[in-house]
């Protein structure tokens, strides 16, 4: 019996040892809680989603200037975004700040042209795939009805309220192939952190994995808002308004608390591309958000090398043709202010050349002589945005208008030397024209930002000098 007992006891010990080993193996391999997932893209190694961000387009279709490869152009922007979309199966285009108009009111004379330009911008935004924007004050320049119509053309959500209205926050939840992105628009005075935070939490409760704020307000107030609402992953900053035509130099991207704050160059000259990496969503209680996203930012300048979207290029061409035909008809009788008694008026380069033949021949070989022809080729010969820098004496007493002044087409002698009628009448009298104008005086009206950057008028003067004209 003792022998049998020992055998039974040894078998039990062996079984217990085997059972313990099995349990340890299960704990080590099958029962261990999973390690936290790191943010990752899809199976092809691409980002979970890609955001394209624009600030303060402000009604600009393309750059205006006489240098090659200038920054901007909505046809180039559309081509760039179309190419960059291939990096992921999910993308979203968002904007903040003035989109359609630059100024909060439209001048009567140029209002039709500005309306049609805003239409072209809206249609280009449709081509680009704009999902939403937080408007600036100037987006209401032609009234709420026009803004509603333009929003429909853009097929984008308007997230925000007019700046002089009661503070308002508008949000949308965008479902991108199983990934929910919550977007809040804030274009009202600051002092809203509580409301923004509540809206952000509501979006999380509806399943948002990423929270983006589109903000049109002064930068200092926006940064304080980002600090007060740490739930935001990303803030795109636009200005409340974009007065003037100058290109800006946007501040560097920054991080406030845990929010990335981005502002791009105005007038469509650059686009911020943010790649978003999200971890697989674990089981979570209602209203809870999984771990925060990883954001990778790159800023791309918009240049001709990006290519041209054929559809958007047609939008631009149609706008120019429509404006050219309208202005040529409506302003056919536009005349400059009369020349005051005793003052000089403009006579045109041909009249100057009747005495200064060598100087005229030199001028005829320059780009200035062909300046107006370049507008004709682009359906812009009667465009208020373009004509002033392609004729002589625009808007001055006796000078050119948007339609009138055949002898003054092109940038002629009198643009630098001054109106010459009195000089023609009394050629021997000194001081009636500027014989040797300062280079800067000739360049300050047109050869300046945003039309051209880094312009050296002294160096460029050599392009117009020659036999009989300064040499």
Q: Helicity range of the residues?
A: 25-40%
Question: How is the main sheet built?
Answer: 6 strands, mixed
Structural class: alpha/beta
Query: Termini, distance in Å?
Result: 131 Å
List segments where confidence is low: pLDDT < 50 over at least 5 consecutive residues: 1-9, 22-39, 283-287
SSE run: HEHEHEHEEEHEHEEEEEHHHHHHHH
Key descriptive features of the protein:
Flavocytochrome C3, Chain A, domain 2, 14 helices, six-stranded mixed beta sheet, single chain, 15% strand, 32% helix, 2 domains, elongated, disordered N terminus, Purple Acid Phosphatase, chain A, domain 2
Summarize the structure.
The chain has helices spanning 2-30, 74-84, 111-128, 144-154, 193-205, 219-228, 310-330, 349-353, 357-364, 371-377, 414-417, 421-425, 439-443, 457-460, and strands at 49-55, 91-96, 130-134, 157-158, 169-176, 179-186, 210-216, 234-238, 254-256, 259-262, 270-277, 294-301.
């Amino acid at each position: 019996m003792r022998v049998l007992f020992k055998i039974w006891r040894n078998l039990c010990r062996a079984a217990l040892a085997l059972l313990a080993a099995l349990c340890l193996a299960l704990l080590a391999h099958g029962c261990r809680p999973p390690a936290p997932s790191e943010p990752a893209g899809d199976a092809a190694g691409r980002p979970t989603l890609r955001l394209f961000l624009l600030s303060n387009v402000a009604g600009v279709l393309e750059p205006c200037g006489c240098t090659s490869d200038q920054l901007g152009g909505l046809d180039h922007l559309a081509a760039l975004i179309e190419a960059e979309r291939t990096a992921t199966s999910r993308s979203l285009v968002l904007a903040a700040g003035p989109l359609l108009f630059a100024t909060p009111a439209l001048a009567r004379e140029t209002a039709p042209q500005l309306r049609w330009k805003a239409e072209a911008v809206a249609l280009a935004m449709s081509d680009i795939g704009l999902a939403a924007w937080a408007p600036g004050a100037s987006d209401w320049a032609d009234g709420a009805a026009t803004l509603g119509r333009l929003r429909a053309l853009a097929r984008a959500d308007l997230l925000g309220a007019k700046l002089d209205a009661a503070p308002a926050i508008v949000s949308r939840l965008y479902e991108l192939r199983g990934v929910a992105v919550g977007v809040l628009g804030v274009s009202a005075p600051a002092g809203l952190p509580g409301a923004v935070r509540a809206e952000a939490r509501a979006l999380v409760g509806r399943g948002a994995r990423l929270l983006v704020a589109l903000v049109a307000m002064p930068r200092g107030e926006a940064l304080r808002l980002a600090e007060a609402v740490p739930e935001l992953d990303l803030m795109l900053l636009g200005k409340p308004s974009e007065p003037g035509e100058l290109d800006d130099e946007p501040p560097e991207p920054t991080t406030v608390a845990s929010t990335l704050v981005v502002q791009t160059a105005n007038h469509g000259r650059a686009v911020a591309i943010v790649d978003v990496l999200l971890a697989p969503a674990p089981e979570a209680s209602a209203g809870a958000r999984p771990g925060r996203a990883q954001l990778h930012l790159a800023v791309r300048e918009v240049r001709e090398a990006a290519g041209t979207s054929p559809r958007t290029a047609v939008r631009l061409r149609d706008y120019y043709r429509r404006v050219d035909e309208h202005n040529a008809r409506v302003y056919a009788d536009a005349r400059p202010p009369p020349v005051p008694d005793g003052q000089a008026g403009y006579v045109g380069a041909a009249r100057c050349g009747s005495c200064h033949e060598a100087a005229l021949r030199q001028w005829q070989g320059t780009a200035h002589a062909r300046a107006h022809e370049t507008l004709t080729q682009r359906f812009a010969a009667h465009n208020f945005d373009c004509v002033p820098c392609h004729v002589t004496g625009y808007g001055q007493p006796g000078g050119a208008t948007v339609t009138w002044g055949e002898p003054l087409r092109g940038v002629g002698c009198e643009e630098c030397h001054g109106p010459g009628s009195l000089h023609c009448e009394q050629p021997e009298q000194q001081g009636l024209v500027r014989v040797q104008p300062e280079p800067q005086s000739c360049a300050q009206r047109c050869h300046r930002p945003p039309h051209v950057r880094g312009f050296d008028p002294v160096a460029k003067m050599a392009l117009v000098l020659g036999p009989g004209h300064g040499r």
